[in-house]
Amino acid sequence: MTEQPGPISSAPDGHASSQVCVIIPAAGSGTRLGESIPKAFVDLHGRTILERCVDQVLDLDARVVVVVPADLVGRARFLLPPQVGVVAGGAHRSTSVRAGLAAAGDAGIILVHDAARPLTPVSVFCRVIDAIRSGHRAVIPGIPVADTLKHVEQIDAGLAQVTTTVDRDLLRAIQTPQGFTREALVAAHADDEGLATDDAGLAERIGIPVCVVDGHPMAMKITTPWDLRVIRQILNSGEVVT
Question: What is the pLDDT of residues 184-213, one digit of tens each?
């Protein structure tokens, strides 16, 4: 299973994509995975999930900043290449993203990427970056939804009633990296009141248009033990997309 990434293009003014920074929040505990250590530091075939995630972005001409729990900063710096920035995160994702932003230098394009998506192909990063360079302020990757989806109303414990069937052709399952102009991401995180499950949700809430490019099935997120088992089987098979 292969997909060749497109060229990592230069910015319109001729400068290289060093104007891009990839922030990888990895400060979460990952309790749903059922491991005794933070999810990003769980072993994945002899390397941590975090190392494999960083491997996927090193071919980009971009600054990489990893955000980890304060007590694991030293461990992360030991595991990762010296050119990767490592900073301490906070209790919430938004706090960690802001910590990454503070270490992003003068990058005008910021990508926020889940450490728990260690097999995301480089081609997905390139699509997001190219869409930002074409003039969009916020861009996210997504894939079509395969399952039939229904809106339900809870009527009892373990029992719900269908109220309507959703048109899945209008839906996308959203992945990362999520890309923004620096100004858009700073504005989105200026007020983190309320609920948002991703950075794009914060942007949407303040009226920033969010565009969707094609994602990839390999960008699946490790959340549960089942997800981890699937990723390990993919690595065993050698069907990793770069």
Answer: 999 999 976 656 789 999 999 999 999 999
Q: How confident is the model at residue 93 (pLDDT cuts 50, 70, 90)?
A: confident
Per-residue buried b or exposed e for 180-193, using 16+ beta carbons within 10 Å of the residue's own CB: bbbebbebbbeebe
Q: What does the alpha-carbon distance between residue 147 and residue 97 come to, in Å, rounded to a whole number?
A: 32
What homologous superfamily is domain 20-237 in, according to CATH?
A: Spore Coat Polysaccharide Biosynthesis Protein SpsA; Chain A (3.90.550.10)
Predicted TM-score (pTM) of this structure: 0.88
C-alpha to C-alpha distance for 147 and 156, rounded to whole angstroms:
24
* 17-29 as b/e: b if 16+ CB within 10 A: bebbbbbbbbbbe
Kind of pairing between the strands at 159-166 and 109-112: unpaired
Q: How confident is the model at residue 237 (pLDDT cuts 50, 70, 90)?
A: confident
Residues 30/38, Cβ–Cβ less than 8 Å? yes
Q: Give strand pairing partners of 153.
A: 161
Determine the Cα–Cα distance for residues 206 and 10; give it in Å rounded to an integer: 30
DSSP 59: T
The phi-psi region of residue 175 (left if phi > 0; otherwise alpha if psi is between -120 and 50; otherwise beta) is beta
End-to-end Cα separation, the chain, in angstroms = 10
110: buried, middle or exposed (CB in 10 Å: 19+, 13-18, 0-12)? buried
pLDDT tens-digit map of 28-64: 777 778 777 889 999 998 999 999 999 999 989 999 9
Q: Distance (Å, rounded) from C-alpha 227 to C-alpha 220? A: 8
